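Posted in: Structural Biology > Protein-Ligand Complexes

Title: Requesting predicted complex, iron/sulfur cluster in pocket

I'd be grateful if someone could produce the 3D structure tokens for the following input. Sequence and ligand are given below.
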Amino acid sequence: MFYATYADTRGNAYVDEHHAAVGRVGDLFIELAPEQMIPLPAGASLVLMPERRAVGLTPNGAFAPLANGRYALAALLPQGYTRIALPAYTGSGVTLPLFGYTAVAWHDDQFYVAAKIEDKNLHKWDPVYFNTPELQQLVAKRRAEMPNNRILAQLAYCALEYGCFTAQNIFYRRYEGGIPVSNACNAACVGCISEQAADCCPSPQGRIRYQPSVEEIVELALPHLQQAEEAIVSFGQGCEGEPMLRADLIAPAIRALRQQTGRGLINANTNAGYTAGIKQVVEAGIDALRVSLNSCIPANYQAYYRASTYTLADVARSIRIAKAGGVRVALNLLAFPGVTDREDELEALISFIKDNGVDMVQVRNLNIDPDRYMALMCHSQGELYGMEQLADILRSEVPGLVVGSFS
Ligand code: SF4
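-- Reply #1 --
Done. Output follows.
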């Protein structure tokens, strides 16, 4: 039996042994099935959803709010896990901050979550390898090596204040390191992680305010490419806007880097809406693009991205230009149970992948207030297949497609 759980206003978590565990997909409550559940993974955290009353399944099979004062408990999953169901609750309140709320249950004397492991390469992003005791010292050492580099100054703040993994990798000099360069964006995502309207919720990071130089980019990226294990440098970080708006910096930086080393990968996380910028970095020799999108149905895409100067068709064109230039393209799929796994969405996604030659889909749990998102996503119909089916469906519909969580 998977029991319902809840939290009190002081943030204590409880089990309710009179109700079975319930989750939510889109706007629908579902009874959570054992095959949808895994033990709460290491590195996950539990949070209280204020003003949202928890819902459970009664012995006679009815979905019912738990007693007064019993609020929804949610889990926030580490990278590499795909959320299968949201917490079930009634009521609403202030807009919730940008987190990937996941349903929680109690079973066998431990917490379980409605999720699955999407990518076995968890080790590189395991929280145990980050925020280690020597990090502060490494930051000071790197900063002394490049005292005037404003990007490194930003990354020092991101590494120590936000705990950002790609910022920390620059100091650990390993794997994927972030290079934030753009303080502007051509979209205004409802769940933007670097800039939020005052009436919403705090953005997890502040957006950079400086305009770096090509020299600063090269100074920072070159040693990472030359020395880091499995080196990747990535433009387009959580603390910046759209990197392709700074293709005028990134393209010459790529050329300068490739004149000095052929080692490692140069990647950009982008909304790919600014096709002229994509063209510039492809011609300069970028190796990979990770293109973020929440839906391949234009109206659902626009409802979330609120793009000001481009459309989803421009994103598709950008991807085709990148593919023609030999660039590896992954989609950073902002996934939400009850939307991403809906028939219309899946059909549109599969066509988009096939028509544009996408190589990989990286599944990301969309961090957003569930009710706020569902109020926007009203342009898709059809059967729900379940997030646990997503990867298999995509792989069977698009032979050779890689589905996972990491580059
Ligand atoms: S594309 Fe990125 S930076 Fe731009 S609004 Fe969306 S989340 Fe924010």
